[in-house]
Amino acid sequence: MSLAWVVLIASGLLETVWASALEASGHFHRLWPSLLFAGALACSMAGLSYAMGHIPLGTAYGVWVGIGAIGTAVYGMAALGDPATAARLLCLLLIVAGVVGLGFLR
Fold first, then answer.
1. How far is residue 65's CA from residue 67's CA, in Å, rounded to a whole number?
2. Does position 106 have pLDDT exceeding 70, yes or no?
3. pLDDT per residue over 65-104, tens digit each?
4. Hey, what long-range contacts does 61-64 have (CB within 8 A, 24 or more apart)?
5. What is the DSSP track for 5-25?
6. What are the transmembrane regions (predicted)?
């Protein structure tokens, strides 16, 4: 696996961090979650930018968004009490299939 892919995966995970911190910031009324949001967002975007220099645009963006969406949904279900219905889990599996497909079919 190339460095660009490692950075892309880490950037996708950081998307989960910033999305979760954004929710925790209370519309930017809480300092530490707001700072975590800003830092994770900047690092996530920088990593995505780096990865796009080595991985095709559609593949890099699709994988980044997919990792962030899956991570954020799983966090919501595990930590925030979002419903974990069979339909939601099936939809997450479809996103996983799409992300894996983008990675292999570039």
1. 6
2. no
3. 999 999 999 999 999 999 999 999 999 999 999 999 988 8
4. 62/98, 62/99, 62/102, 63/8, 63/9, 63/12, 63/99, 63/102, 63/103, 64/8, 64/11, 64/12, 64/15
5. HHHHHHHHHHHHHHHHHHHHT
6. 35-53, 60-80, 86-105
